[in-house]
Amino acid sequence: MTLSPVMDGTLFRQELFRMLVENSSDIVVQVDDRFRRIYTSPSYQEVLGYSEDEVLGQDAMELVHPDDLVTVHSAAEDFIRHHQRMTCMFRMQHRDGHYIWMEGSYRKLGPGEGSIGLLRDISARRTAEEQLKSSNGILSLILEHINQGICFFDGQTRLLRCNRLYATLYGLPDSLVQPGTELRDILEYRVAHGTGPVKSIDDYIAWRAEMPRRAQPFDSEVALEDGRIIVLHHFPMADGGYVATHEDITGRRRTEEMLREAQKLEAIGRLTGGVAHDFNNILQVIGPALEIACETVEDPALRLALVDAKAAVAHGGQLTRQLLSYARRQMLQPVRTDLRRLVADMAGLLRQACGEAATLLIAEGSGQAAAVIDVAQFRSALLNLVINARDAMPQNREVKGGDGRVCEVRIAVETVDVAVEKSLAAGRYVRVQVSDTGTGIAPADLAHVFEPFFTTKDFGHGSGLGLAQVHGFAHQSGGSVSIESRLGGGTVVVMLLPAAPVEQMPG
Fold this sequence. Notes:
This protein is of the alpha+beta class. It contains 16 helices and 17 strands.
């Protein structure tokens, strides 16, 4: 069945929400422009007690504590009119009647798609903060139950007290979490063991020394040498010291980055599809005109020029089809196909594409590996992957690959059961894997390889549309494509395509 652009957008949203649910323990919600819920993640029921049927289509404000409604409404109105993102704290009513403090972060989606929000239960943090302000006598209780690292330093940056989670967060030994320990000693240990801040120790201490000048609590972020991101909530004390809670938000940032990347790819796809359609309309005018000219022109030189022009139009048509494939607007003609047999039939072509740069190996398998796919698009996708693998090889066949073996391109086809695979629905899929022992891809480039016109090849040796076409074909077919690579260690590309239902034999 051919997917329309509307159906394709729905699939993208499903993939996006599944990705967020898989990578975050926070509640994920999607609301329309009137803040009515149109999606809730399973954690909504786990945290608030309401099933999906009870809250979908309802006003997202209905569960907000009456005392917080004015603040939330004001923030929401400002968010709708002026901003792309909103963060606020408020209380929401649990199904059993009690209220839970939540921190909500909302980001706008495309026109007509409303907003997506991440909700986090911050009841423990709020409780800790309120207890800390009201009484120092319950400090031990807070330290035992708070789910963040917490530390107390005096005005001379000497440690007064901390909880175990603070020490665990930075890998500190017991000797460095005793009262009176200098902040510099703690930082020097952290730097030596890879958990120190990116800025220098002197700069970090100078930054800490500014805290007493701040009249009220404030938040900041610190990047660590090991790549983690820590959010610090600071509470200055009257004696010039401070209290700070430490929270590792690396996972949350990774989820947000995945969301931004998915939104970027969708936006690029929409733009690409529009450009391709306009380009195709131009070619539809030029092509017939060249045909007529070729039939009427008698001058051999001019006729040869017209033939070259027709070839350029044909190449432009192929380019348009690749762009439409990436944008998932290419009209597919899916049929039930045995992919293992199809790959075997293409063996001669694929070996010719490898040339002398590499040895092509096609793994033999047994059993059914049928999928309902567009055969021409699959052929093009597989050929693109093999050509990319070939271009990653040393030109001399005797030169060893990244892992010491003779340079190879391997193709394997098998049927697999997928329970949870990123954004894919559970079910049976045919996995088509193309691996090579070539030079690999740099980490900085790996995140962009599926973008149209992005290429790691030398100028003039690639259009940057090969992997974009593979990406569009796989997703429009209801599957996915992923890539793993490291410099000097080769590359593995995996397409997962929905397996066709097993044919029943008459009996």
